[in-house]
Design brief:
The longest helix has 29 residues, at 239-267. The chain folds into two domains: 3-206, 3-Layer(aba) Sandwich (Rossmann fold); 249-371, Zinc Finger, Delta Prime, domain 3. By secondary structure, the chain is an alpha/beta fold. The chain has 16 helices and five strands. α7 (163-174) links the parallel β3 (151-155) and β4. Strands 2-3-4-1-5 form a five-stranded parallel sheet, sandwiched between helices. It starts with 9 loop residues before the first helix and ends with a helix. The structure holds zinc ion (ZN). Zinc ion binds next to α3.
Length: 373
């Protein structure tokens, strides 16, 4: 990613590139700040600048082959290390999760540990960076670079290194192999060994000022100024929070479309098409399936509210409201209890790794039956 694709931090970007231009490249740096302020994307943009073959105006070009390989997370001299769930005490490394890592970065570089856990499907277990990972990093960096230039290592959430791994990393920072640039990122520098902090150059990635965030949303995301301001007001300088708000409204529309299609098919008893729909749903990620089922519960409640209050209490707007006006009568006191129980049960089972295709097929049959009650 080029610096220009990241919101805010103009001063910091200029300073980082000026240092590189004048040959001042510290061998170890600590990018510190909340995940939403973007220490990781900043580290990646910095690495891209280091590798770029045609830097221009303090930014990487985004076009040369080095830039393109960084942007697809496939540059042979750019190494990543990040926390993951340690399953056994065998020689485990982050390599086992590299595909998920690439996917996460491609989808969105602004994420936190909960997002990452969701991506790796590890629920609430605490991921760490174990000693086996630190050992593998040292081994990788001790090799010559593929391209003959620098080797860059980015460690995301260095505060999650365990003690053994921290000591190994410290050794690497104390005696770095030739041509190595190490960037640690953290949300909390107090969780790092003092000796690591004292040997790294601190780069503070601070909260993004509201004005810069608003400007970015208007220019890059095409939002109108009023809409951008109201989102930024709730974001506390975090682009991650901005993205979450944007995603929620996108997702809600998607869930509504799913719900509308599904209910129509079920009501018309189009069994075969319903099974195809179940297959489509099965292809969505587990997190989306869960959110969709919560959305179904919400819609069922809105239908009941609509029936009892003549639509006055219904909080929906636009297309959703129009659909509900026609559909609410099919969800009534004869079936609402069972329907909500079924949505609830399905949510419970999806959370516990039930097979989504079987689950949504089975649920569809129940809904077909219940809608006719
Ligand atoms: Zn380039």
């Amino acid at each position: 990613m080029q610096y220009s694709s990241l919101p805010g931090h103009q001063g910091l970007k200029l300073k980082l590139s000026a240092n590189v231009d004048s040959g001042r490249i510290p061998h170890a740096q600590l990018f510190c700040g909340a995940d939403g302020y973007g220490p990781l994307p900043m580290a990646i943009a910095y690495a891209q600048y280091l590798f770029c073959e045609q830097r221009e105006k303090g930014d990487s070009c985004g076009k040369c082959s080095s830039c393109q390989r960084v942007e697809s997370y496939n540059h042979p001299d750019l190494h990543f290390s990040f926390p993951f769930k340690v399953v056994s005490k065998k020689k485990e490394t982050s390599q086992a999760y590299f595909k998920e890592w690439q996917d996460q970065l491609t989808e969105n570089q602004y994420f936190d540990i909960q997002d990452w856990n969701g991506k790796c499907d590890i629920g609430n277990s605490q991921p760490i960076i174990p000693a086996s990972e630190a050992k593998s990093i040292s081994a990788k960096l001790s090799l010559k670079s593929y391209e003959g230039g620098l080797k860059v290592l980015i460690v995301w959430r260095a505060d999650l290194l365990n003690t053994q791994a921290s000591n190994k990393l410290l050794k690497l920072i104390e005696e770095p192999p030739n041509g190595t640039v190490i960037i640690l990122t953290t949300t909390d520098q107090d969780q790092l060994l003092k000796t690591i902090i004292s040997r790294t150059q601190l780069v503070s990635v601070n909260r993004i000022p509201d004005e810069e965030l608003t400007e970015f949303l208007v220019e890059k995301e095409g939002l109108d100024r009023g809409g951008a301001r109201s989102i930024v007001n709730l974001a506390e300088g975090s682009y991650l929070r901005v993205k979450r708000q944007l995603r929620t409204s996108d997702n809600e529309l998607k869930y509504f479309n799913h719900f509308q299609t599904w209910m129509r098919l079920c009501y018309q008893k189009k069994v075969l098409e319903t099974f195809n729909w179940a297959e489509t749903m099965a292809g969505e990620g587990r997190e989306h399936q869960k959110q969709f089922l919560l959305f179904c519960l919400h819609m069922a409640r809105q239908c009941m509210l609509g029936n009892y209050t003549d639509m006055q209490m219904v909080s929906l707007q636009g297309e959703e409201r129009a659909f509900l006006l026609k559909f609410a009568k099919f969800i009534n006191h004869n079936n609402v209890l069972q329907l909500t129980q079924e949505f609830d049960k399905a949510h419970y089972h999806i959370e516990r790794n039930a097979n989504p295709k079987i689950l949504f097929t089975d649920l569809s049959i129940k809904v077909i039956r219940l809608l006719r009650k």
